[in-house]
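Long-time lurker, first post. I've been practising inverse folding by hand and with some scripts of my own, and I keep getting stuck on stretches where the structure tokens seem ambiguous. Below is the full token string for one chain I'm working on. Before anyone asks, I'm not after the true native sequence, just a reasonable design that respects the backbone. If someone could post their per-position residues I'd love to compare against what I wrote down in my notebook.
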């Protein structure tokens, strides 16, 4: 089977296999963020590591807008049209053309909240949402409408799905207030329901890069065929089995992004992968809890993926 057939089999809910798919993600140097250079680097990484699908690392950040200083300023959030996403959609098309017959291609999709962070800064957004969430929400609505153009453009060129990354539910942000439920989650779901309707392979990534969560219950009803989350919560440590049971779908993870996959020896990487694979009893994809360091050793990544592919449960 080629990589596409492997993932189609994995995603078939009635099919179980000893084969453990795997994938790790990282940012490439800025010289590989655009055009053919981005396509070539993604293909190089995919072919070298042997991962089971292609995940495009979108680098199209929203520009910072200094004029949005107060909640009431969000009504003037500019609408980024189709031309804003043209390069990233062309990269998606290039990847589909180059590798789509042999592998599934998915695109990174950052949440409206995360794009709002890029627009005004992380701390400013938190403060403005605490001051007047209804006014800030008007800007997040504009961002969501813009991102929908990106989603539909990628779908039109033939990608198989998205890794949808979401933030905003961390303990330190808005716990005890309705901000997450009213200003973040509805806009996540608007995009996720669209990609879930149109695509066969979506990864829900609950990002803990900026802090941990009290629990993951607010995300259980988010769509996504596979769930990628960190296992360390504020008050307890989960297992991959816990996550799979909570969300009712396969867990992707098992390794820490700053752990041995980034810094360890070949032997340490193999041992960590074997332990992660042995721990999860059901369908499982090996990965990290978030994006690896940009300088992560590709040999370590290849070793991790090879070890997962050869793993047989005892």
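-- Answer (accepted) --
I ran through it position by position. Result:
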């Amino acid at each position: 089977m080629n990589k596409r057939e492997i993932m189609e089999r994995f995603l078939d809910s009635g099919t179980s296999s000893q084969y453990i798919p795997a994938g790790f993600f990282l940012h490439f140097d800025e010289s590989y963020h655009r055009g053919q250079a981005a396509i070539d680097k993604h293909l190089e990484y995919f072919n070298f590591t042997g991962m089971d699908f292609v995940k495009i690392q979108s680098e199209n950040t929203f520009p910072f807008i200094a004029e949005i200083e107060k909640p009431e300023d969000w009504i003037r959030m500019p609408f980024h049209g189709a031309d804003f996403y043209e390069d990233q959609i062309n990269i998606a098309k290039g990847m589909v053309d180059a590798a789509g017959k042999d592998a599934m291609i998915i695109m990174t999709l950052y949440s409206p909240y995360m794009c709002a962070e890029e627009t005004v800064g992380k701390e400013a957004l938190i403060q403005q949402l605490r001051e007047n969430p209804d006014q800030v929400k008007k800007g997040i609505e504009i961002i969501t409408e813009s991102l929908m153009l990106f989603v539909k453009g990628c779908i039109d060129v033939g990608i198989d799905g998205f890794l949808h990354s979401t933030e905003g539910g961390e303990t330190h942000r808005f716990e005890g207030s309705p901000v997450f439920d009213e200003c973040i989650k509805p806009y996540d779901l608007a995009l996720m329901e669209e990609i879930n309707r149109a695509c066969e392979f979506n990864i829900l990534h609950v990002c803990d890069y900026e802090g941990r969560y009290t629990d993951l219950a607010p995300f259980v009803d988010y769509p996504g065929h596979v769930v990628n989350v960190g296992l360390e919560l504020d008050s307890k440590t989960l297992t991959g089995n816990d996550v799979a049971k909570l969300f009712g779908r396969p867990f992707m993870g098992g390794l820490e992004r700053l752990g041995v996959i980034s810094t360890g020896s070949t032997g340490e990487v193999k041992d960590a992968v074997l332990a992660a694979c042995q721990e999860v009893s059901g369908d499982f994809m090996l990965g990290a809890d978030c994006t690896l360091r940009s300088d992560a050793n590709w040999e370590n990544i290849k070793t991790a993926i090879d070890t997962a592919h050869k793993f047989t449960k005892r």
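A couple of notes from the structure itself: The first helix runs from residue 3 to 11. Residues 3-7+19-228 form a domain with the TIM Barrel fold (CATH 3.20.20.210). Happy to go over any region you disagree with.
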